[in-house]
Design goal:
- The chain is built from ten helices and 13 strands.
- It is an alpha/beta fold.
- The strands form four sheets. Strands 4-3-2-5-6 form a five-stranded mixed beta sheet, sandwiched between helices. A four-stranded antiparallel beta sheet has the order 11-12-10-13.
- The chain has two domains: 28-226, Ribonuclease H-like superfamily/Ribonuclease H (Nucleotidyltransferase, domain 5, 2-Layer Sandwich), CATH 3.30.420; 229-288.
- Strand 11 and strand 12 form a beta hairpin.
- The longest helix is centred in the first third of the chain and has 15 residues, at 6-20.
- Helix content is 31%, strand content 23%.
- The radius of gyration is 22 Å and the shape is globular.
Length: 295
């Protein structure tokens, strides 16, 4: 008689629950490990997956308290051929953390005491990358560009906004929720855990929204990053149109005091037609690349 290991027994029980249709089983993602056989794979794009924990929301007033990077080499069809890391650093900001940040991150003041980010190492890793990605790139990029202006022209991609999660049947766009809907979970809200779990999420495969082409989410992200988009700026739009613009996905650019929205290049004509239909002033358009999209 074959004797099953404890892991095999648990997996068999989990499979029984899954098969019943009355339960949804979540499996813990594996512990981080590196996979690199010799040199970096040829003809693969090096992607730096990054995440930060901060003392607040404003790079002008708050500080980084943790930074993590993982490098992944991804083929043209979205297969991860190799990966290294994650590397992570804590940073002593020389003042107490707020109770809210301590609760969110699990970090305490004594965790940060005397800690510092190895900026030279960070730059070495980022300079190696062809593309930087985060699950909320619009937030992370502000901290990286402020601390590392040397790479302020590096292209970025956002796994939260550049993958059509809703069209594929997923609810919400938070990294934790998406990971759960793929049958996985991770523990701890820390930068190193987040970059590793994002790598795991991006390697998952699903059909495209049209039901064709089963491929990884990494393939979708790289495809989006390579395509320019159009920034639609509703200059001259009357105040009375604010609710319609907001409902259509336009966001208020505070410094410029205008409503803006980025769309796929092919969808720009749809937006222009909408402005014409609503009898609104014609918006301005600008082509933006991955190096400009979140800056």
């Amino acid at each position: 008689m074959r004797i099953l290991s404890s892991t095999q027994k648990l997996e068999r029980a989990a499979q029984l629950l899954d098969d019943s249709g009355d339960y949804r089983v979540l499996r813990k993602i594996p512990e981080p490990f590196s996979h690199m056989d010799g040199n970096a794979p040829p003809d693969a794009k090096c992607v730096a997956i990054v995440d930060v924990e901060t003392s607040g929301l404003s790079p002008a007033d708050d500080e980084l308290i943790e930074l993590a990077i993982l490098l992944a080499w991804v083929s043209k069809d979205g297969e991860v051929l190799a990966h290294l890391g994650p590397w992570s650093w804590l940073n002593d900001m020389c003042r107490p953390l707020s109770p809210q940040i301590q609760k969110l991150t699990g970090l305490c003041d004594h965790d940060l005491c005397g800690q510092a980010i190895d900026d030279e190492k960070v730059l070495t890793l980022l300079n190696r990358a062809d593309l930087v990605t985060a699950h909320n790139a619009g937030f992370d990029i502000r901290w990286f560009d402020q601390r590392y202006p040397e790479i302020a022209d590096k292209p970025w991609a956002c796994s939260m906004s550049e993958i059509a999660w809703k069209d594929m049947g997923f609810e919400g766009r938070s990294q934790t929720n998406l990971l759960n809907q793929h049958g996985w979970f991770a523990v701890a809200h820390r930068a190193a855990t987040d970059v590793w779990s994002l790598l795991w999420l991006l390697t998952q495969k699903r059909s495209d929204p049209d039901g064709e082409n089963v491929r990884s989410h990494f393939a979708r992200l790289l495809e989006s990053a390579e395509q320019p988009s159009t920034l639609i700026t509703a200059k001259g739009a009357p105040f009375a149109a604010k609710d319609e613009l907001k409902a259509r996905g336009y966001k208020w650019n505070v410094p410029e005091r205008v409503w803006e929205k980025q769309v796929r290049l092919d969808d720009a004509s749809i937006e222009l037609a909408w402005f014409e239909e609503k009898i609104l002033p014609a918006p301005t358009t600008k082509i933006v690349t991955a190096s400009e999209r979140y800056r």
